[in-house]
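Purpose: get a first structural picture of the assembly so the mutagenesis plan has something to point at.
Setup: three entries, given in the order below. No constraints added.
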Amino acid sequence: MKDASGIDDGTVLRASGLAKTFVLHTQGGVEIPVFAGLDFSVRAGECVVLSGRSGCGKSTLMRSLYANYRVDAGRIEIRHEDRIVDLATAPAHEILAVRRRTLGHVSQFLRVIPRVATIDIVAQPLRAAGIDAAAAERRAAELLARLNLPSRLWKLAPATFSGGEQQRVNIAHGFALARPVLLLDEPTASLDEGNRNVVIELIEEAKRDGAAIVAICHDHEVRNAIADRLFEMPGGRLAA
Amino acid sequence: MTKDDMTPILSVDRVTRRFGDLVACRDVSFSLQAGEVLGIVGESGSGKTTLLRVLSGTLAPQAGEVRYALRDRGPFDLYRGLSEPERRWLQRTEWGVVHQNPRDGLRMGISAGGNIGERLMAVGARHYGEVRGAAGDWMAKVELDLGRIDDSPAEFSGGMQQRLQFARNLVIQPRLVFMDEPTGGLDVSVQARLLDLIRGLTRELGVSAILVTHDLAVARLLADRLIVMKDGRVVEEGLTDQVLDDPTHPYSQLLVSSVLQA
Amino acid sequence: MTLVMETERTAPDETYNFAYLDEETKRMIRRAILKAMAVPGYQVPFGGREMPLPYGWGTGGIQVTAAVIGPDDVLKVIDQGADDTTNAVSIRRFFRRVTGVATTGRTVEATIVQTRHRIPESALREGQILVYQVPIPEPLRRIEPREAETRKLHAYREYGLMHVRLYEDIARFGRIATSYDYPVMVNERYLMAPSPTPKFDNPKMTAAPFLQLFGAGREKRIYAVPPYTTVTSLDFDDHPFDVQSWDEVCALCGAADSFLDEVVLDDAGKRMFVCSDTDYCEDRRAAGHVGPEGADEADAPAGKKP
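Result (structure tokens, whole complex):
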């Protein structure tokens, strides 16, 4: 991404002047301002961890970067293939295209159709990107194996899995397709140490491949292992 | 981005439909991209079903226009730009309509295979073996037992009837499918299976779809984008996850907050 | 007893207008017939009248005949190919009374043949009129019950549904089992019900030199196939149209090319096959043809009823 002077500094995602206020109409129209005038950017190969006290809007920022939440002001520019797309104003189908090929998101909870088999869930982003079924399944199997999910579970739907197992399916789903920008919301929250280390490895590998990563992570060890830089939330700083 | 991605397959411009003093749809505008699944959500009486009828060529609006991009000829005003036989031809060759009640979308006096085959014969198929082969293929695709191909759909369960209705609509490889509460009358366990099937088939075939539902969970699983209707107006529009996770209009917030989280 | 089918022209019963219907009604029906001839296969609604016979006894055909018949015509009436069944006898008697026209059992002598369920075996010629009695004029009715919709299907030539019926036949019986009222396309435009004639007779309808008029009394529809109009029986590429055939020949006249009726002769299940067209059978026997049982039956009255 080029700055005003035309210099490309490797930035792949840049938010500027972001503002977000929730208006709760069902509760008498109460307004909850989360942030305003927020600037944020991340470069290829860099991992930025959002930091600040709980409730300061880390998740809101991350969801805004994914265009899951709509911002009231500002721009969210992302390098999508050979162009820059502003996710704050892009039409729906363009946002979906960016998500399909450029911008990945691992949320805290797995949300899937009840009946679909684990391996198919993990392979789905690869299939959506046009990778053939066999190759997609190979990659999915490889990831699930690395994350120590027993292969007897692969053909089952994850609805009945434990929290940790579901989280690993979620991570495999998020990492299956190598995307230039990856948003990770508490990726290791319910994992044991061994699997935590696998996730750290996956993040390291993604960085080496040039992915820009934005993470929310309360675990200090993991944070220290992955973060190149901390982004202090404006609200978090005020409170500190 | 290719040019095809840019041209909407369906565009709706300030459509209004009244019934006497009642305004069922008021000034509705939106567009649908090729390959996109658009959900129309809202409570009963919000004008969803009337809008679907206007969009699918069975109810002319009093104001505004619905433009559909024909496969070979580009965009036409559905009502003023096409004659009735042209519109009916379009409905047979490029569209599918899935009704909430499968009895409205199936011929109960005709076998399952005949129900699927009818769509092919309606566009000129005159080889019995090929019609039957295609009917069998689609029975399999919607996970119906091939051994039931000559049975009447009246003997099928609700879920099976609904799958048959999908097969009957998808067999002609439509470009646009209209669905009205497609999982409405079904048990929850049957719903999940059908939803998975619908999602898989629409994605695989790359069909565009307009889905009317009051069930936000169904909308989340199937729709790329949502419009929220209230009293005949569109009150909110956006990506499905935007509208459901960050609704901004008071009515959308009420709608979302009224649903039990699963 | 032998029924007298041949009668000379006589004076009609003066109580009635010629051919029973008033002139205004006949003109109305003739206009409908002309329209039907102009649009072959298209069902023209007409203001059908009450006739002195119940619906189902050929009131549609009778009104058509009444509208076209003149004092010089020679009328033949058949029911299932036979001139001597109740329906045929009473219709013939009706027209003799209200028109005084000559009647005949011989196809070749008739100028108008009113029929229920058969086309005569002997080829009709130019100038002859075949009037069909039609119970259900709409071929799509069994599959599409909505009248407004069937009209659109005809208007826009959307006839895929008719093939669904044939599909169902093959799926169920392995072949197109529809054997009468077999749907046809007229002039490559309108789908038409040929009335409950056996499909055996369908090939006689196409490019025929005679005029074919169809009258449906209950549903008040008239349609027509003008001379030399194409009439094609619907089928599938891999299940082409074919007609019934028999291993037997007519027991009386030995015909191998006519539509045969199976007649049960006794309680022991003895049966025989005879021509459904009584006139054709008689002609052949008069010309010296003899079937396997023809010698013994030579003096018996012709027809399917022993």
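Residues 193-208 of chain A form the longest helix (16 residues).
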